[in-house]
């Protein structure tokens, strides 16, 4: 896979640096990425006037940064995408943001970043959507429904990935 350089925002660069440190410090990529992205997103938006708006804007940047980290240190980009999206959804839940809006932002940002570094689009879609659904289901059934509905309504191809019935 051709690892093109991602153009990252300041938050994305911070996410990248923190993710690299977490992966290298823990040695277990999936868990480190979920925890890092969850904590970074929650910390970034604390005190924001409009928590949902701030979280939605930040989710994409955090996921892009995590993928940049994976690409730079040779980790599995698709597994990192899954874990980063999962972490951002959990972080959004921690601060009370709209999970539907944040899930769309995280998945779309992740898909763009994955494409920028040469990942297979279909695999990236599957990993990103699955990460969002897993996080939402762990939060609760209403969160699961909200995220499924948002992804199906806003992300092209998401309906093909989501196998559970829509309620």
Structure summarized in a few sentences:
The protein is mainly alpha-helical.
Q: How would you characterize the overall build of this protein?
A:
With 167 residues, the protein is mostly helical. The protein has one domain (10-158). It contains eight helices and no strands. The protein has helices at residues 10-26, 29-45, 51-73, 77-95, 99-116, 121-139, 141-154, 158-161. Helix 4 (77-95) runs antiparallel to helix 5 (99-116), helix 4 (77-95) runs parallel beside helix 6 and helix 5 crosses helix 7. The radius of gyration is 14 Å and the shape is globular. Mean pLDDT is 86; it is low at 1-5.
Keywords for this structure?
globular, 78% helix, 8 helices, mainly alpha, 167 residues, disordered N terminus, single chain
What's the topology here?
Layout: H1 10-26, H2 29-45, H3 51-73, H4 77-95, H5 99-116, H6 121-139, H7 141-154, H8 158-161
Q: Indicate the proportion of strand residues.
A: under 5%
Secondary structure: helix percent: over 70%
Spans of 5+ residues with little confidence (pLDDT < 50)?
Answer: 1-5
* Strand runs, count: 0
H/E topology pattern: HHHHHHHH
Cα Rg: 14 Å
| Subunit organisation of the chains | single chain
Helix tally?
A: 8
Q: Which overall shape is indicated by the principal axes computed on the Cα atoms?
A: globular
Give the N-to-C terminal Cα separation.
38 Å
Rounded mean pLDDT is: 86
